[in-house]
Amino acid sequence: MIENAPQMTGNMEFEKIDILALLPQLPPLVMVDRLLFCDQTVTHTSLMVREENIFVENGVFSQSGVVENVAQTCAARLGYLSMGQPVKIGMIGSINDFEFSGTTVRAGQTIDTEIVVETEVGNVHLLSAKVMCGKTLIAEGKMKVVLTDVEA
Known about the structure:
By secondary structure, this protein is α+β, with helices and mostly antiparallel strands. 15% of the residues lie in helices and 45% in strands. The chain has one domain (12-151): Hotdog Thioesterase (Thiol Ester Dehydrase, Chain A, Roll), CATH 3.10.129.
């Protein structure tokens, strides 16, 4: 779990949400299982990495899968904040200062992702991200996501 994260255990509001209702992605490209917390600035998600995940090879979750998980955490945030309206498609505009710790995430493990929105200008969202596996930092960095007007 992300350190200093808002208390999320037993939060029925988030436990009842079907993550697929928030995301433009469909299986097998869904890289978020659960929305754990979301407000205007901070979002937390989790993903149980499964052997059949398209970003798993020889039992190892790839760095590309981690990056996609961060982008989909942003998508989950946007979907949650605009719940009841059609989900829009977003695109990664840039990835900056993204560093991987070198820790291997294997099938069967769960990653927890936190994004913090630093700036929003129109449909452009600049965020910082931290991805953990248990108490181990997997990756952190910044990402720019651009939300389109195209409905999923």
